Amino acid sequence: MLVVQKYGGTSVADVDRIRNVADRIGRTRAAGHDVVVVVSAMAGETNRLLALAKAAARTPDDRESDALVATGEQVTAALTALALQDTGVAARSFLGHQVRIETDSAHGKARITRIDIERLRDALGGGAVAVVAGFQGVDGQGSITTLGRGGSDTSAVALAAALGADVCEIYTDVDGVYSADPRIVADARKLREVSFEEMLELAASGARVLALRAVEYARNHGVKLHVRSSFKLDEGTSVMKEEEMLEQAIISGIAHDTSEARVTIHKVPDRPGVAARTFRPLADAGINIGEIFQNTSTAGLADISFTLPENELDRAEPIIDAFSREIGAEAFDCDREIAKVTVVGAGMKSNPGVAAAIFEALADAGINIEMISTSSIRVSGVIRATDAKRAVQVVHRRFGLGGEVLEGEG
Q1: Is residue 359 part of a domain?
Q2: pLDDT of 100-125, one tens digit each?
Q3: What is the number of domains present in the chain?
Q4: CATH no. for residue 143?
Q5: Which of the residues 26, 124, 217, 329 has an alpha carbon 20 to 30 A from that of 164?
Q6: For 364-406, what is each residue's pLDDT tens digit?
Q7: Kindly report the CA angle at 379 between 378 and 385, in degrees rounded to 5?
């Protein structure tokens, strides 16, 4: 059996934790499994390196920034290999360019295009554990690239797909995927399994357990994921194809996100091509748009509202101002004090009344929903940021998601 294990920053935060990781890897190897390990930088290290870059240059070059921050994972990979060797386990560390994880040249958010697994196969064939520095690759010009937020998750899933691994285990500081954030909902329930589609919706809606791109890659390549704690031996949460699941709850989980802002463009001319002219400049600037809502046209004019990452708003505002003038809109305003609460469950497809129950729970709690969007397995509402925690709690309670057994209502 071939296992890929990924360890996040908190799991390798210091040498003692790296030794703990090495012990866990050693147990997996002793059980007769081949092991490829992907490691993140030690907790806080990437931020420290980015701060150094900003201290050295007012506007750090993207290529050089990637070369700098990639060293964080290099340190962890070498230390992990050393810790394994110290326990008698053969191990070799590899950087992204040594494995040959090829990417495009979008520094800071590169996408993997190809992986050469020959060196990893050689290491495994020689009985060694291969320890790979996550988050990084190399472009066609030989420059070091990084994969963006959650990049080590993506590295691990991509390697698992290329190697045909039996499972990709994601080790972190939580012991699985929960029905809600346990810091907000005391009786949040750990899920035994969740579908790729549900996990994609949760990851896109604020759940921080798995990176969105990693889940997309796993779904597209059929890589089974297992989210586990680095500090416990308990089973975690399996992420798999929906048809492979043993159970299917009406509601699997509730995610919340307070990191978005809302923009409303007022009195936009309601004619063909305006929406394209509105969102194309933002897309060209690499700014991701979330929910989009347009009200009914009155006298040929409509308001368009959309969400985007709050940390992109300062960069987006001059772009929005320019195209608002170009399309003849009256004005626009921005709201940073919003939150998005999202209820996800594959069982929604066959259980009518879920949306009504969500809205009733929020109404009974006096929480106003300002924007609504849905898919076949998701209901999202934009509310005031100050209501986010309470909204998660009342909906979680309304559907009886706490405890050992999920109970849905339709």
Answers
A1: no
A2: 999 999 999 999 999 999 999 999 99
A3: 1
A4: 3.40.1160.10
A5: 26
A6: 999 999 999 888 899 999 999 999 999 999 999 999 998 753 3
A7: 125
91 lies in some domain = yes
* Residue 226, beta-bridge partner list: 169, 238
Structure tokens at 150: 């959650």
Per-residue pLDDT tens over the stretch 250-272 = 899 999 999 999 999 999 998 88
CA 302, CA 298: separation in Å to the nearest integer?
6
Q: How many CA atoms, within 13 angstroms, populate the side-chain half-sphere of residue 244?
A: 15
Residue 169 included in any domain = yes
Q: Which domain holds residue 51?
A: 2-173
The three-state DSSP-derived secondary structure of 173-222 is CCCCCECCCCCCCCCCCECCEEEHHHHHHHHHCCCCCCCHHHHHHHHHHC
Burial class (CB within 10 angstroms; exposed 0-12, middle 13-18, buried 19+) of 326? exposed
